[in-house]
Amino acid sequence: MNILIGTSPFCCRDKTVSLLQQAGITPSTTLDLVDEQTLSQATVLLANHSVAAAIVLYAPLDMALEHAIAQSVPVEQALVSWQQNTSQLVRFYKQHRTGVLLASLADVFAAPQAFVNACANRWPSLTLDDNEPVSSEVKPAPFYQLLAYALQIHVPALQTLSQQLTALTQPLTYHHPAPTSLPVDVGELVSHYQHAVSAQKQLPALMEQLYTLQQECEQGKQKLDEQQQENQLLLEQLFSVQEELDSRLQEHEKQRTYQQQQQTLTQQLEKKQQAHVKEKQELQNQNARLQEQWNSLQQEYEQEKQRQDELRQENQLLLEQLFAVQEELESHYLASRQQDSQQQPGSSSSDDQHTHNANVPLLKRQLQKWTTKKALRRKLADLHNSPLFDPKWYLAQYPDIATNVKFRKNPALHYLKFGGFEGRNPSPHFNSAAYLALNPDVQAEGFNPLLHYLRFGQAENRHTGQS
């Protein structure tokens, strides 16, 4: 059975829960019912049947005052809090009479077995242990009992609220004293009175000791004043000497300051000179690096310019050779045609045209073949001239090529036609497969990876693929 344990302010909740657990009452939920919010939370738990019942324990006024003062809570604040919370508990109990058992914390500690029996009678389905809980009566000190009694006499609202709370409380076998009687034991009051009388008898002796101590204090104060006057005179003399010393020290300090300033300026000048020399050296180094870069770029420019000139000359030579071949073929064709006309005067012009048309594709094929060989030689030359192609390493790395009669003499030709596309590397410094994977446009165009890198990729800052 799910049980909610709720405690009011100024209750020893941990000690209360421990006592209930000894009797086999283990709460599923514990709440400090200190304000409307926690009371509303308890209402919700009861309404949605999250808990089947609630046990609400409150601290009587005398117990609440003792606990509050022990926590350094002012009496006025404790009274307001107790009165407000008690009113809230009364309203809460009236709203949930059937599901709530209201009990005084003092009664529970004084007669725990009676409280357990009351819970069992209230909720027969509640499972309890056979062990009888140990009673531990928590009785406030006589002072707080008298204080609570006096407050209830002088504040009728407190007395009415206490009576109303007592009327709603679950009665236990523990006997409550009549409201009109003093809530303390007369023997305890006599004991407190005897202590007070004893303290009063000791008061004259203590006052005499206090007077003696005050006289000694006055004498000590007088001696202290005399010593302070003497010290004041010594201080004035000391100040006079100090002023003279300060005057001399100021002169000395000025001289020292001038020397320090001169030394500081000298050090700053040396640092600036060193920084100037260092900056000058850095500028010279930077100028040298820039000059080297300029020379390198100029050399690359000259090489590229020379290459372009060679390409233009080569193209011009190809055109001239093409024109010469074309003229020679035309001359040869005209001579052949004239010879055929002389030998066969009856032949038709359509035969001549057919012969001419047959010779033209042959010329184109020869020219294309020559151009292809020329381009292949240039590609092979680019590979041979690159440090990224190592023919010895290539043959050692791929034994099948080294044993091939055709390609072992020219490994660059194998790499150009097949190796680059098969993922073979031209050297340890270039990864063909990685380059194609990093550059899908090269693979889509069917370009050899190393040749593309040498002609375009290097200028475009493409990665060689080698980590």
General description of the model:
Residues 210-328 form a coiled coil. Residues 334-364 are annotated as: Disordered. Residues 336-350 have a biased composition (Low complexity). Strands 2-1-3-4 form a four-stranded parallel sheet, sandwiched between helices. The two termini are 71 Å apart. It is built from 16 helices and four strands. Strand 1 (3-7), helix 1 (13-22) and strand 2 form a beta-alpha-beta unit. The longest helix is centred in the middle third of the chain and has 158 residues, at 186-343. The chain has helices at 13-22, 36-47, 61-70, 75-95, 105-110, 112-122, 142-154, 156-168, 186-343, 349-385, 391-397, 399-402, 411-419, 432-438, 440-444, 449-457, and strands at 3-7, 29-32, 53-58, 100-104. Helix 9 crosses helix 10 (349-385). With 467 residues, it is mainly α. Helices cover 71% and strands 4% of the residues. The chain is elongated and about 165 Å long. Among the domains are: 3-183, Rossmann fold, CATH 3.40.50; 364-467, no CATH class.
